[in-house]
Task: structure prediction
Amino acid sequence: MGRFSSDLIKVGEDAVESVPVTSLKHHSESQIRDYSALASLYLYYGLPVRAEYTLRQIVKLRTESVNFGPGHAETLMHLKLLRKSLKMQHKYKSASAITKRITRAGELPWLIPFSFYKETLPQWICYDVCVFFY
Result:
C-alpha cells in the first residue's frame, strides 16, 4: 500500500475515532456513513478483514433499523460489500450465505406501517420511498 492510500485510510480512521463502530446507534446517520466510506476504502486498498468487521456492524444496524430494514437498497449494498470482503479472504462458504441472504432480502417488500408517517398522500409523493400496503 502506498503512502497516499495509507494517509487516506488514516484520515478516514481519524474521522470515526471518537465513536467505535460497535457503539453506533441506528440514529447515528453521519457516523454510519463515515464508517461505510471507511469500509469502502479498506476494500479498495486490499484490507478485507478490516472491511468485514466494519460492514458486519453496519449491516446489523441497517437490518434492525425501522427506517431501513433487511430489504432496503442501502442494506443490500452493504451486504454486497460484505460478500466482497469475504471473497477477498477466500471465505467462500460465508460469502455464499451472504448471497442467499441478499437474494431473500431482495425479494422482501420494504414494509412501513402507515402510522409511522404523519404526512398525507400528496406529501408521500415527495419522498423517494416505495411502500407496499397489505
